[in-house]
Amino acid sequence: MGYTIAPGVHWVGVKDWARRWFDALIPLPQGTSYNAHLVVGREAPALVDTVNPGFEEVLWTKIAAVVDPATIAYVVMNHAEPDHAGALPWVLMRAPKAKVLLTEKGYAIATRLYSIPEERVGVIHEGQTLDPGGKTLRFHEVPFVHWPETMFTYLLEDRILFPCDFFGAHTAKGVLRRGSSRHRDARQGLFRGNPHALPASGPARLGKGSRAWPGCGRPKPRPHLARSWAHPGLV
Ligand SMILES: [Fe+2]
């Protein structure tokens, strides 16, 4: 089952309870999650991030409960790491009109990792917007949060930030605020106090009422406190 975040905005991700390691480095005692989000504009649906390879059918079933997945016009790649972008080749085969929106650095990585044809790619730049019909997506380049190509996507009308790994956590538990997760994972530790996260806190400081839905783990209700997240000494 997917989850409706706001009218026309849906969590269509996957919880991977069985995974025990990430990159053979990070133990996953509570599994992990691959959070993909569907934004349904009046003219076209857009998918923000995908899932780890092997979970494509689950993703597709959740999207199909909302819209015809073949009508997806845009796939936003906030981050090229396989747990978020690994399903891109599969998605592009089944959504034949879809273009992948990514940063310049993302283009270099995605075409190498996923063999995405040039004509299926749209390179976006800092501050650029896309409106698929009453759902304006604004893009912010945030290099090295986590890889050099990373970006945030902000949905203006609903004040929802999709920051991929930033605010992320490796857990399958409590992703949709059902149950709680006390697991402080290594990735959260990585971004707390990471100097690359401090510039990223600018676009993430969005004011009260905003919410962040990261690429893994639970949503964060107060991204306007991102500065303190990036640098624990600042509020
Ligand atoms: Fe990552």
Describe this structure in words.
The protein is an alpha/beta fold. It has a single domain, classed as Metallo-beta-lactamase, Chain A (4-Layer Sandwich), CATH 3.60.15.10. The protein contains seven helices and 16 strands. A seven-stranded mixed β-sheet has the order 1-2-7-8-9-10-11. The N and C termini lie far apart (37 Å). The mean pLDDT is 87. Residues 79, 81, 146, 165 line the site of fe (ii) ion.
Low-confidence runs: none
Question: What's the mean pLDDT score?
Answer: 87
Number of strands: 16
The main β sheet shows up as:
7 strands, mixed
CATH top-level class:
Alpha Beta
Radius of gyration: 16 Å
Apparent shape: globular
Q: Strand-and-helix sequence, N→C?
A: EEEEEEEEHEHHEHEEEEEHHEH
Question: What is the name of the CATH architecture?
Answer: 4-Layer Sandwich
Distance between the termini: 37 Å
CATH topology: Metallo-beta-lactamase, Chain A
Bound molecules: fe (ii) ion
How many domains, as an integer? 1
CATH homolog superfamily: Ribonuclease Z/Hydroxyacylglutathione hydrolase-like
Strand content: 15-25%
Category by helix and strand content: alpha/beta
Question: How large is the count of helical segments?
Answer: 7
Helix content: 10-25%
Biggest sheet, spatial arrangement of strands: 1-2-7-8-9-10-11
